[in-house]
Amino acid sequence: MKIAISGAAGLVGKEFARHFSNEHQVLALKHSDLDITDAQAVSRLIFDERPALIINCAVLGVDACELETALAWSVNVAGAENLAKAAAEINAEVLHLSTNYVFDGKRKGDSFYTVEDAPNPINVYGQTKLAGERAVRAASRRSFIIRTSWIFGIGKKNFFSTAHRSLKAARQVRAITDVWASSTYVRDLVLRVAEILPRRHYSTYHVVNDGLCSYYDFALEAARILKFSDAEVMQLIEPVKSSATRQNAQRPRYTPIRCIVSDELGFSALRDWREALAEYIHSDCTLNE
Ligand SMILES: NC(=O)c1ccc[n+]([C@@H]2O[C@H](COP(=O)([O-])OP(=O)(O)OC[C@H]3O[C@@H](n4cnc5c(N)ncnc54)[C@H](OP(=O)(O)O)[C@@H]3O)[C@@H](O)[C@H]2O)c1
What we know:
Strand order of the largest sheet: 2-1-3-4-5-10
Largest sheet: 6 strands, parallel
Helix content: 40-55%
Bound molecules: NADP nicotinamide-adenine-dinucleotide phosphate
Structural class: alpha/beta
Radius of gyration: 19 Å
CATH architecture of the domain at 2-156 and 184-209 and 257-270: 3-Layer(aba) Sandwich
CATH class of the domain at 2-156 and 184-209 and 257-270: Alpha Beta
Number of strands: 15
């Protein structure tokens, strides 16, 4: 089958392209190949290429959205809608990535958000991602919405992908102690999506590794996997409150997610994030040796 992937140079897009290239014809579309905000370009490309599936990985990130609100709506909502409309016109399926940041994180206790919980985003990124989900659903009856969270994998300079590298290089890591969510190994995300697709059950999924953590828990686990001593941990990982950090966008405090749709379809939960992190660190360290 022919699969078009937008935002294919990003963390998730690259992994989808790598995975599906083994068995499918993949059009890995980087930003310079296709700007999803250009409705005519999207429509032309989709009509010419006629993919059976479009995977939208293009996004404007959390802090950038706060700085460039108009662009955020253009990429995360109008761009997603352009792809979904073009997909509908050729009767292709569309898979759109979304986020735990559609929730406000104000819930107390140790429960997980499911698709039955009402979204209430607290930053521009979350607002645009929620509006993007709705636009995709409205444009295409054959759409999968995949909400995921705190992704780590090779090729991205975010906290979760690089904490272990900083520790290995003896660089100090500032880690927030009072914001919690699910985290996700990009390989596990893509493998689960590959299981979801053939079921043709068009719905909203939450795809994350099992368990939850704060940034601080995540850094501690990376240090444990690297076999750091308590003294090294004390020296290298600085616990900080979110109020002491400078980020453009406010993050929701507590947004672990769980997938009741996957439960209904008989999928077991993905492995615990600690196991996935150990595999990621091992493969990243092996690559760099
Ligand atoms: N990373 C996470 O922790 C996380 C968590 C939850 C959900 N998600 C979701 O997962 C999806 C993929 O995220 P990611 O982490 O892979 O993002 P990423 O690494 O930032 O990649 C996004 C890609 O989109 C491209 N892009 C931006 N504007 C575009 C446009 N107008 N047209 C075409 N391409 C454009 C970017 O290219 P340029 O850099 O050249 O602009 C970049 O290559 C997103 O839907 C995101 O909301 C991610």
